[in-house]
Each structure stands twice: as C-alpha cells, then as structure tokens.
C-alpha cells in the first residue's frame, strides 16, 4: 500500500498532500515516503464503538502472526538480499528466554532490512544436539546406554522423541511472529545435511586436516563419552568443600592439596609433592620442577619413588611448572591431566590410564581395582598415612569441572579419537580479525576470542553415544587400525581391498567406527550446507551473524574455519553478539537451577496451578529430574506465586531489547515488563485520540482545511516535526550500531515524553477551540504514521494493528523505512531548547503544587521572575505553560505585599536563576518544615567538615589531593544550603535534576 502522504515539487516548494489537502514547505529536502491515500474514514460512531479504549494483545497478535507466516522470500525476487541464519535450537524440549532474545534481536534487524527494500532470507533450523538429546532420551526411557547399540531400539526411540520435540519447538518459534523463511527450514540430522557432513569429513580427511590419534579429552563417566567444552560447567571453590558425585555413595572432598613424600632413589631423603588427586598416583610417570626454581633444580635427572607402588619416577625440569603452586614439585600423570599430557608429550613420557570408561580404578591400581575413582581418594590417603607418606594437607582455591548433562565430575582421559587440526585455519581467522576484514561486535569479545584462540587445541570430533552422525570411517576386522574414509560401505570395501590387496566376500567383516561426530561439527557446516555445497562451490555469504556470546568459540569460530577449509571463503564477515539471559541473582537460566522461563508463558499468561501441573508432567515424562523439579517449584513459589500475566509479544520484545544486549548478562524484570505493556497501550490511546478528532472534523466539515506550511506559526507543530527528525536520526544510528536499548529508549522518548505527554497536551485546547485544528491533526497524523514505521521493527504487532486502523489496507512491513534526511529542514535546535525549558518550568510548577497540597486541576496565579534574557523565551511559551501546568502565568517579580501569602522556589535554567512563586496551599507548613529540617542536616554536615578541614594537623599531614577533595565537598554543601535557604522566610530554593 502507499502512504497517505505524497510528495512533489512545485516552484521550489515541497508539497505535502493529504487527499485534497496540501501544504507547502520551502526546502530542497524530500519529505514523506511516496504517494497514496488513506481510504474512506469511518462514520461518526465507528471510533467510539469499534476502537477499543485499551490495547489487548490477545485480540490482534495472532491475526498478524498468521499473516506474516504466509510471507515468502519470493516476494522481492529482484531486490538485494539480506541473509541471516537463526542459531538452531536443540531438539531437547522447549524454547526459553534466551531463544526469545535471539528472535527479538534478529527479527528487529529483519524487519528493518525488509523496510529498507531488501529481500529477506532469514533461515530457521534445528540442531539434533547429540549428547543433550541422548541424555534426555535415556532419562525418559529409563534405560542404560549399554542395553541397546546404535541402530537398535535406542536410536529409533531417540529419533521419535527428537521428532516430537522438533514439532513442538517449531510451533513455538512460529508463534513468536518472526519473519523466518520457513520454506528453507533445515535440520542437522536430515538426509541432505547428513550427506554434507559425510562429504565434508571426507574432504577434510583427504586434505590432511582430520587425523586419528590418542588425545586427552573431557570424559563423562556417566555417559561413557567424551564431551565438548560447552558441555562443561565450572564450579569455583575457595577452599575445602564436599560435592555429591553421581555413582558415589558419599560426598567427595575438593579444595584440598595433599602433601605426599616421594622418596629419592638411593637416598634417605624425600621430596614433598602437592596433589589434589591421590587416586591417580597409579598413573604417575614422572615428577616435575621448574628448572628456574633454585630449591629443586638439583633434583632434575634423579629418580623418585612412587609411595603407592614403589615404582621409580624420573624427575624432569619443565618451565610450565608453577613454582608458587603447592610445594613447587608436581607429579606428572599424562593420562588424567591436560597440562600433564602436554608436558608428557614434550618429554616422550608414557600415558598410564588407571580409570575405566565408567569411572572405576582399573588393573593398574592393583588391590584398589574396582573402586569408584573418587571414592578411592580417601582409601588411598589412608594407606599413604599408614606409610608415613601423607605429611600434611592445605586448602586451596580452584575449579571443579562438571558435566552439564549428568552432574558428574569431568575426567580428563586419553583415548583414540578423530581430531581436526585447527592451528593453520585459526591463524587465518586471527589475522582477519586483526586486519578488521572480519568484524566482531562488540570489540571486547573479539579481543577475548583472540586471547583464547592463541592457545587453541585440535578439535576432538568423536563422541561415544548412539545419537548423531555416524563417522564415515571403516576398517577390516583383521586390521584394527587400518581405517579408511568412505561415503558408504561399498566405497569402503573397495578402498580396503585396494589397500591390503585382498578380496572381501563378507561385508560384515567391514566395521564402521561406532562413534558419532561432535554435534558442533554438523552445526558448523550449516552455512556451507545452505549454500548448496558441494554441488555449488561458491558460498552464499551471510550478511550478519547474530548470536549469543557464549557460543562465539564453540560455533562461530568453527563455522569460519570449516567453511574456509572447504570453500576458501568465510561464511560471514560480521558477527554481532548478545549477552546471556540470567535471573535476578545473576545466574544463567538453566533447568538445573530451576529458573528457566518459557517465553510463551510471558506472552499468553499462565496461572500458578497450571505452572505446577506443567512441572509435574515434565517430572513424570523425564524432562526434569527430581532435583530440577524441586528447584523449579522453589523458584515459582518465590518469584512467580501468581504465575504470569499475559503481557503479549511486543511487551516481551521491548523489555528484552531495552537492555544493553551487548552486556555480559541480561534479565527480565517483571515490573519493567508491566511498564512495557502499558507503553503499547499508550501508543494505542494516542492513535485513538487522533482518530476521534479526525472523525469529528470530517463529520462537521467533510475534510481537513487546506493550508500552506509556510504560514504555519504553531510552535507546537514545528517542535514535534523537529523532534521527529531527531527520532529518525537516532533510530538510524542505533539500528546500524546494534544498540537496541538506545533504539527502544528513543521510541519511548518520542511517543511517551514528546508526542503524548507534551505535544497532545499542548494542542488539546486548540483542538477543542477549533484553532489550527486541521494543521494540528495533519501534523499529528504524519508524526504517528512515521513513528509507527520507525518503531515497527521492535514492536511489530501493535504498530501493524495501528497502521491498519489508520489506513485500512496494506501492511506496515511493506512500507519504506523513513530516512532522517527527509525531515532535516525541520530540525530546530533553538525551538527544542525553548520547549525543554518550558517542560522544566511545567514540572516545577506541578511539583510545587503537589508538595504544598494544591489540587492538580486548580489554576493558581504563578509568578515567574526570570533574568532579562529568559523573559522573551518564557513569554513566547506562556500559553503552553498555562495549559500544561494548569495555572495563570505572570512574567515578573512577585509584589512585595503578596510575599507572605506566596511560596517561592528557585530553579536554574541554563545556569541562570529563575524564581517561581505560587500561593500557599494546605500542606505549605509541612513542606516548609521539611525544607528547614533539610537545612539543619546540611548545616551539621557542613560544620563537621569545616572543623576537619581547618584542623592544623589535617592541613599539615594531608596530601594536596585529599585537601582538594574535602574543599570541593565543602563548596558543594554550601551550594546545597544556598539552594534551599530562601532570601526571606517564605521562600525556598530548589535545583531540580
């Protein structure tokens, strides 16, 4: 649809046309957005009877959501393309507020770009989430992983659970009203994506980037699988603590260093070694000291005796040993510590794995075999104490690494895995960031990433679970390490036959690796897969990669290096990151903390009993563990005892994006959410106000009266157009820089503070009296319609409904986005300052009336005694001050004879004194008593500080900086007192903020 405002040029003037109405403005700047008409206005009773007095989201949001779902990317096939991908939600349950935040940010960008004329390709998808889905499925099925193997009932049942979750999440996503291209939706475990995964693994292997080897990984004994860093939670401790570990009867002690005596070979001396893990002594292969540590440098090259099994251990020197940790001597256990693994590799030390995959001590532990690894700690210590090897203990600060899926303590473990070599690819990425070819916003996250990547390790691709992409590698049963990479079993058979010069008759002798690929491998291929690779070699660049800061390393980095390795191209060159949703205590929202909020509960509302029933069902179905259920109920009782009100989608978006998304943590304040809900209603009422008056004009006159803008003298109209220009300019800046909190505030400022609170109040009397009525209404209509366009990306539902009621055809999303240059000629800084002063004076008069007990609708006589330079400006705004403050205004000094019956406040306007006087009200004495008490308190503080400042001892010994600070505090106090004390007993001063 076209806007009701058309523009054309005639004789050097810019013409605004409103149906048969037109006005002229002498300028060379284009105003408006293209031609059109409004349509037939409603009859005289339409607005009162059919336009609700309050905006109810539930009445309108679903209608617009259904309309937007029908949009396709073919709508603008010849326009420039703006591409984004939605970070795929895991098919593990329901959406949470973190997803809602991502949707709000990306949909705001998507709508802005759509209104700028781009063809939008915003592609949704879903992640099969290997370990996460696998864990939840096992909990639901109440079976052990070892019961069923890959391809059996377990995998089929996980598929069934994942499919149901995917359908549920897709419905949730669709209900949020985002402009997603559902015709392009993907799933990381569908056939087409699986083919891309196999092909990518094959290509990377052929390029020498994927290799098999023994590496140290994060191992979950409960899952019996390696896990990624993102699946590891970190629990800080500052000293001794106990922690309940799955499959262990008693809590396990952490935060303690045990100082053990290792005897020296052929000597009666020993050396103290500090360790936090005595249960791994059976895997010790050396002791290490820092060669620069003079206390122990002489030990290098000697042998020590392991106190638990009497085996000899070489003492080596390595600069990575921290001299300040423990005693300065450490044991080296390469199979169970990442730093020890690196040190061991440098010194060609063996790797002795003493822990089984399910977390028990193995044969190397001798008599301790079969004991849960962490339970063995106290047993080993008891034995060492009997041998006089346990000399002392000390507390220390550190971190426990916990598997986020099971709550188990993560075990560093060495196993044969497939690894992707990342060093060269990462260097290319680092160089592009440093050269600013690749942009990460905000910059501080880019700096953090560079620091992290400087120590990046090879990427472990193998996972020992049933759910995920099977690794396309095979071996012949007689050659356990003779792996070949192939896209299918037939191809593998041919490769193996050629490799070993044999003929294989029985294909069952060809064994595929039982591991699956890390979920991040398949998700890192999303940009490549969506580009049609490998059929199409050119990658379709993503215009903006927006995602959470927490997966910058785990997902963004991997997408970049994988895409570059396969296509020699970056998948995107600009990343915008947002913070993490946390509760009011600063804790990240998660099921394990019981603080997850379903965004649709906020949108649609839900009572406490329904929340309780939902939690019970989640417990019964295995979606929640008992501990998670208990925490959820505890959170509900303390935070949401009444459940959630129905706030609507716009209020949720506005509340989320009113925060600085680029900060570390974000939250959802229910009070502010309520304010956002009220704000959408404020917009609604502004439109209703306009339509009622427009309806009245058209009923009585048949049309608006024509006028020439050159004859417009109304400061209120010119001021609103100036404000509108600033609004447009701010929106351009804030959307372009991703500062959505400033964008939200600019919307609130224009509609709330300027259009509703000031402009409409300024013109109400004129509208009632019929003064400049058509002019005011035309300007108001233009301001509202332009404001709706500017606000639509953030609050699309209410703005779309308002637009439809204003113009009755078409969609706001299809309107061009306003540009500030269209209204630049209306910018009037001088008028803006004058109105700001007016607003300040009005606020002071209103405040004074309230404080002295005067009724709000009373119209007292007000004297304003200003400096000569201020009088003309105040006089020119006299009628507006009188209307807004409900008073009768006189510019001049208060007559001396009337001072006793008046009360005066002193304010500052542009640094100059201005007195405001009004007759005393019912609460004047109470107000004056309060002011006098304030003076007394300030004077007491002033006296104390003066004594301190004038004290000779202070003057002699205090530094000049301290003296200056105290002197400034004295000056500030004196100013405060002067502002409160009046020149006579009936006057009081005030310096408003």
TrEMBL record:
- Under the cellular component aspect of Gene Ontology, which terms does the record hold? cytosol
Q: Which residues form the Methionyl/Valyl/Leucyl/Isoleucyl-tRNA synthetase anticodon-binding domain?
A: 717-858
Is this entry keyworded Ligase?
yes
Any GO molecular function = aminoacyl-tRNA deacylase activity
Q: Name one GO biological process term.
A: valyl-tRNA aminoacylation
Q: Where are the transmembrane segments?
A: none
Coiled-coil annotation reads 928-983
- Please report which protein family the annotation says this sequence is part of: Belongs to the class-I aminoacyl-tRNA synthetase family.
Q: What is this protein called?
A: valine--tRNA ligase
Source organism per UniProt: Folsomia candida
């Amino acid at each position: 649809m076209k806007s009701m405002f058309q523009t054309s040029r005639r004789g050097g003037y810019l013409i605004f046309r409103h149906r048969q109405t037109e006005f002229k403005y002498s300028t060379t700047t284009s105003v408006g957005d293209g031609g059109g008409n409004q349509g037939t206005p409603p009859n005289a009773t339409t607005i009162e009877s059919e336009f609700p007095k309050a905006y109810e989201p539930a009445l309108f949001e679903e209608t617009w959501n259904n309309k937007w779902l029908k949009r396709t990317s073919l709508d603008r096939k010849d326009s420039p393309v703006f591409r984004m991908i939605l970070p795929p939600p895991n098919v593990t349950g329901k959406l949470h507020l973190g997803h809602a935040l991502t949707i709000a940010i990306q949909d705001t960008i998507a709508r802005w770009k759509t209104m700028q004329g781009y063809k939008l390709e915003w592609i949704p998808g879903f992640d099969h989430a290997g370990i996460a889905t696998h864990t939840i499925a096992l909990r639901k099925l109440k079976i052990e992983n070892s019961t069923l193997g890959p391809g059996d009932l377990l995998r089929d049942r996980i598929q069934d659970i994942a499919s149901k979750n995917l359908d549920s999440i897709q419905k949730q996503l669709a209900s949020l009203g985002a402009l997603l291209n559902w015709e392009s939706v993907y799933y990381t475990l569908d056939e087409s994506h699986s083919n891309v995964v196999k092909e990518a693994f094959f290509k990377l292997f052929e390029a020498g980037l994927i290799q098999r080897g023994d590496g140290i990984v994060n191992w979950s004994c409960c899952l019996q699988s390696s896990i990624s860093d993102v699946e590891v939670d970190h629990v800080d401790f500052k000293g001794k603590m106990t922690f309940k570990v799955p499959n262990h009867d008693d809590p396990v002690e952490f935060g303690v260093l045990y100082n053990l005596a290792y005897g020296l070979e052929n000597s009666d001396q020993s050396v103290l070694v500090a360790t936090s893990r005595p249960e791994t002594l059976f895997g010790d292969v050396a002791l290490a000291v820092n060669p620069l540590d003079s206390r122990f440098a002489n030990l290098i090259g000697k042998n020590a005796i392991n106190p638990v099994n009497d085996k000899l251990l070489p003492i080596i020197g390595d600069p990575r040993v921290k001299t300040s940790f423990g005693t300065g001597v450490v044991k080296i256990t390469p199979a169970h510590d990442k730093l020890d693994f690196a040190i061991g590799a440098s010194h060609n030390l063996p790797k002795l794995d003493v822990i089984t995959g399910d977390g028990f001590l193995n044969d190397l532990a001798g008599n301790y075999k079969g004991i849960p690894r962490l339970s063995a700690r106290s047993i080993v210590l008891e034995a060492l104490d009997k041998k006089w090897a346990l000399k002392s203990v000390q507390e220390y600060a550190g971190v426990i690494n916990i598997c986020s899926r099971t709550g188990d303590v993560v075990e560093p473990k060495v196993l044969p895995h497939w690894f992707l070599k990342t060093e060269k690819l990462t260097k290319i990425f680092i160089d592009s960031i440093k050269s600013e070819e690749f942009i990460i916003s905000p910059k501080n996250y880019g700096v953090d990433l560079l620091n992290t990547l400087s120590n990046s390790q090879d990427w472990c691709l193998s996972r020992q679970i049933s759910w995920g992409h099977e690794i396309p590698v095979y071996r012949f049963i007689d050659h356990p390490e003779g792996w070949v990479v192939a896209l299918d079993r037939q191809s593998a058979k041919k490769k193996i036959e050629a490799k070993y010069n044999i003929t294989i008759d029985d294909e069952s002798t060809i064994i595929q690796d039982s591991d699956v690929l890390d979920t991040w491998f398949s998700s890192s291929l999303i940009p490549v897969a969506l580009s049609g690779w490998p059929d199409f070699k050119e990658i379709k660049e993503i215009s903006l990669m927006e995602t959470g800061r927490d997966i910058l390393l785990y997902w963004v980095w991997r997408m970049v290096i994988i895409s570059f390795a396969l296509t020699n191209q970056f998948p995107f060159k600009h990343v915008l990151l947002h913070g993490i949703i946390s509760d009011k205590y600063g804790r990240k929202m998660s099921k394990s903390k019981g603080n997850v909020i379903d965004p649709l509960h906020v949108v649609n509302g839900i009572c406490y009993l329904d929340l309780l029933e939902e939690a019970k069902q989640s417990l019964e179905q295995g979606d929640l563990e008992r501990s998670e259920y208990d925490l959820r109920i505890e959170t509900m009782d303390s935070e949401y005892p009444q459940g959630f009100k129905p706030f609507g989608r716009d209020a949720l978006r506005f509340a989320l994006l009113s925060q600085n998304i680029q900060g570390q943590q974000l939250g959802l304040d229910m009070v502010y959410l309520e304010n956002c809900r009220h704000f959408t209603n404020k917009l609604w009422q502004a439109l209703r106000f306009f339509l009622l008056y427009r309806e009245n004009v058209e009923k009585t006159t048949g049309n608006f009266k024509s006028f020439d803008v050159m004859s417009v003298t109304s400061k209120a109209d010119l001021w609103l157009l100036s404000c509108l220009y600033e609004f447009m300019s701010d929106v351009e800046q804030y959307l372009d820089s991703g500062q959505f909190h400033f964008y939200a505030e600019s919307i609130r400022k224009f509609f709330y503070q300027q259009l509703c609170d000031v402009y409409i109040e300024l013109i109400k009397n004129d509208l009632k009296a019929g003064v400049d009525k058509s002019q005011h209404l035309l300007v108001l209509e233009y301001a509202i319609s332009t404001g709706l366009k500017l606000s639509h990306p953030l609050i699309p539902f209410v703005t779309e409904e308002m637009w439809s009621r204003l113009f009755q055809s078409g969609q706001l999303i299809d309107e061009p986005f306003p540009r500030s240059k269209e209204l630049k000629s209306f910018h009037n800084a001088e008028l803006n300052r004058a109105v700001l002063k007016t607003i300040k004076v009005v606020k002071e008069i209103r405040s004074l009336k309230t404080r002295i007990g005067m009724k709000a609708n009373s119209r007292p006589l007000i004297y304003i005694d200003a400096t000569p330079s201020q009088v003309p400006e105040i006089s020119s705004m006299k009628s507006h001050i009188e209307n807004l403050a409900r008073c009768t205004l006189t510019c001049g000094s208060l007559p001396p004879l009337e001072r006793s019956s008046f009360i005066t406040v002193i304010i500052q306007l542009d640094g100059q004194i201005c007195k405001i006087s009004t007759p005393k009200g019912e609460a004047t004495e109470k107000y004056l008593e309060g002011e006098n008490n304030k003076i007394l308190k300030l004077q007491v503080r002033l006296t104390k500080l003066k004594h301190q400042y004038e004290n000779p001892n202070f003057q002699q010994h205090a530094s000049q900086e301290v003296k200056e600070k105290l002197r400034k505090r004295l000056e500030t106090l004196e100013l405060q007192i002067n502002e409160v004390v009046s020149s006579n007993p009936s006057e009081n001063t005030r310096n408003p903020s």
